[in-house]
Amino acid sequence: MPSKITIASIIGLLVASTSAQTNTTYPVYPNNFNWQRTYPALFDSLGRWAVPPTNSSEVVAWYASINKTLIPPAPIIALNATTSALIDPYAVGQNPYCDWSFDTCSRPSDVRICPDKGVWGLTFDDGPTPDGSKLYDFLAQSNQKATLFYIGIMVAQYPSIAQKGCAAGHQIGVHTWSHHPLTTLTNEQIVAELMWTATIIKEVCGITPRYFRPPTGDFDDRVRFIAESLGFTPIIWDLDTNDWTIGTAGSQVTTATEDASFAKWIAGVSNDTTGHICLQHELNNITVNEAIKNLPALQKAYKVMPVASCTNEQHPYTENIIFPTINNTALQPNSLPINGSTTSSTSNITSASPSISAGGLSANSSSKNAAAPNASGSSALIAAFAAAFVCFVFSL
């Protein structure tokens, strides 16, 4: 079930976390990477994560690729002025556009579970983060792969940590650019949120995800159609730790209650009829420590793997990369690129102009200087990615 915490609380938590994370020894965007493209401004005038503008040449080109006459006419959802909660314009259970936020409604194309009993889809949202780096180390020590849903703004701030997650062989998915609830955005804004995130992941890691997770699980048929038109499939969940709420005002979730949830899920594995996809976060030290604490017991009860593996999705990227799955663990000789370039099977990312207004960079410039990590697509990163895949194959 989606959390009952208000959308404003979710966004506020992430913005506060972002502000805290920028006060580290990490070099600051845009001086933290040898960027080959310019990107939208990360923050607005109040320091909040900014939805990308829709008048750039890139967004115009991406939106032009969609058949607008087929976009479902679902209304743009408003937020309550007092509580900032999403306002359902329809009676309970009567929303005709299959809105997950209101009715936990899903379509057959949505990925909600791992089909096989005893299988656990391990997912972490809101990366890359400095605390997530510790999680990646633990996963490597455990020879465990996961699905990581990256926020575009976080990739811009922590490209080296994003590369660490990619090089480890985890499945990488899109978690939008600014983590705004998608049903509250215009069609063009939805396009910008998805495509800018895919674009920056491509630059940093050399891969273009085909899967996305809507922030807070907020999506409907309008969002589905736009995303699918751009080549993205939604991954949601059937189990929720609510780990991100620990320590927040009004939350009844604690580390003890999260531990109890895992104990319940582990004890109930024999009664399951399908596998699961669980929502967790690499948001902060608390969520990461909880993941590290509970994973060993989870691994004893379930076959734990990325969502692509449990759903037998061999191609979670547009590039010619074969991902090991539960039914096919054999890597083909040509399954991974062996040099710095990758070939995309779509033209969505590369068709638009490679630059926009310099305001996207100057708005976030900093005087801090530090050695920037290498640009994306390096041979070393791809080699590490391949090596991680090989290790993962033998664990399935």
From TrEMBL:
GO terms for biological process: cell wall organization; chitin catabolic process; fungal-type cell wall biogenesis; polysaccharide catabolic process. Residues 1-20 form the signal peptide. GO terms for cellular component: plasma membrane; side of membrane. Pfam families: Polysacc_deac_1 (PF01522). Its main location: membrane. It comes from the Eukaryota. Its EC number is 3.5.1.41. Keywords: Carbohydrate metabolism, Cell membrane, Cell wall, Cell wall biogenesis/degradation, Chitin degradation, Cobalt, Glycoprotein, GPI-anchor, Hydrolase, Lipoprotein, Membrane, Metal-binding, Polysaccharide degradation, Secreted, Signal. It is an enzyme of class 3 (hydrolase). InterPro entries: Glyco_hydro/deAcase_b/a-brl (IPR011330), NODB_dom (IPR002509), Polysacc_deacetylase_ArnD (IPR050248). This is chitin deacetylase. It comes from Jimgerdemannia flammicorona.
